[in-house]
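Notes from hallway chat w/ T.B., transcribed later so I don't forget. T.B. wanted the structure written out for a chain they're using in a teaching module, and asked if we could keep both sequence and structure tokens in one place. Agreed to drop them here.
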Amino acid sequence: MLRACLFAVGLWGLLGGVTLSAIDRCALRLGPEWEEKLPFASVEDGTLWFAPPLWGSFAMASLGLVTTLYAAALPWHGREYEDHEPFSRRGWHGSRGWDRGRWETHH
């Protein structure tokens, strides 16, 4: 669950940073009164324009990439299983194994 959440947040940051690097400026529909509340914003002819800095896109993309790589490097289990045999009667997941499933065969 943590791995998927970190991967999603990292991918969102990576794609958002790459997209932000292609934008010179964009018009926001917030109104001219937001000019002093937003950094890197200016008002021209009653339109609020947002001009993201180039370092912002690189920072967002690099943090997204690091988060995605960290999610990929997380261990699969919380602890190590020394005596784990994948086809044993009771594996680490607690199931009964391959020979005794839901439809048990009687010989």
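Follow-up for T.B.: The mean pLDDT is 78. Might be a good example for the class.
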